[in-house]
């Protein structure tokens, strides 16, 4: 079993819809949670960065973390064709001395249909 | 530069050859990471540098893989005697500071194809 599970999709939704992307994880020591967006032939671009449980909103994007369920979500409101990309969740362990490696989900490929 | 820079962007080589991939992190970032992204596998951690030292090399898949960082800046990832299973996108990331909570920022990667 992988430490981080993410439905690879593909997921297609009409423009303007609300998109929900999710990941589950098994390691309760994960403390930092991230969502990256990756366009074709580009590197991952950081969208959201959260610590522990709760919600964080940035424009049309909301990240939600539920540590008791080991479940994180990314919501995209008023989705646009430019949101079409692969979305990767990533997690980081509690830091003893500083930075740690990231553990990624496999990514969900999202297409917004005009 | 403004972001993490990787070169070459694409590399095609024959099985058995050695390859060297380069990463230039964001100016002032002291932590540097190498990941590998294979089709259907997601991103896998390879190695992490803090300054010029590598506290975590746990992700390097075999002794054919090595990496170094000099001057606390540019890093090179070397793969010796390449195999077809080494074909992947190799991504580099950097973050600002070892002791603070800072996210990782990625370059666009080197797409490596082994014939």
What is the compact description of this entry?
The complex is a heterodimer of chains A (114) and B (115). By secondary structure, chain A is mainly β. Chain A is built from no helices and eleven strands.
Structure description:
The complex is a heterodimer of chains A (114) and B (115). Chain A is mainly beta. In chain A, 0% of the residues lie in helices and 57% in strands. In chain A, a hairpin with a 4-residue loop joins strand 7 and strand 8 (71-76). Chain A is globular. The radius of gyration of chain B is 13 Å and the shape is globular. In chain B, strands 2, 4, 5, 6, 9, 10 and 11 form a seven-stranded mixed β-sheet that branches. Chain B has a four-stranded antiparallel β-sheet with strand order 1-3-8-7, with no helix packed on it. Chain B has 115 residues and is an all-beta fold. Chain B contains no helices and eleven strands. Chain A binds chain B through residues 6, 8, 32, 34, 36, 41-46, 49, 51, 88, 90, 95, 97-99, 101-107, and chain B through 4, 31, 33, 35, 40-45, 48, 50, 56, 59, 91, 93, 95, 97-109, 111.
């Amino acid at each position: 079993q992988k430490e981080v599970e993410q439905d690879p999709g593909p997921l297609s939704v009409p423009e303007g819809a609300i998109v929900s992307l999710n990941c589950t994880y098994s390691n309760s020591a994960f403390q930092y949670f991230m969502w990256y967006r990756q366009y074709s032939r580009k590197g991952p671009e950081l969208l959201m960065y959260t610590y522990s449980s709760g919600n964080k909103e940035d424009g049309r994007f909301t990240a939600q973390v539920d540590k008791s369920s080991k479940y994180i979500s990314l919501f995209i409101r008023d989705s646009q064709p430019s949101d079409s990309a692969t979305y990767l969740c990533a997690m980081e362990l509690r830091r003893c001395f500083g930075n740690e490696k990231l553990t990624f989900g496999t990514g969900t490929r999202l297409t917004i249909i005009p | 530069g403004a972001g993490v820079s990787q070169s070459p962007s694409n590399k095609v080589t024959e099985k058995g050859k050695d390859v060297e991939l380069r990463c230039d992190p964001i100016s002032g970032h002291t932590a540097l990471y190498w990941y590998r992204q294979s089709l259907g596998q997601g991103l896998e951690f390879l190695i992490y540098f803090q300054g010029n030292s590598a506290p975590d090399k746990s992700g390097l898949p075999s002794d054919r893989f090595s990496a170094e960082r000099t001057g606390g800046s540019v890093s090179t990832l070397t793969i010796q005697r390449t195999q077809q299973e080494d074909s992947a996108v190799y991504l580099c990331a950097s973050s600002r500071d070892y002791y603070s909570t800072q996210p990782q920022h990625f370059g666009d990667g080197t797409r490596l194809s082994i014939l």
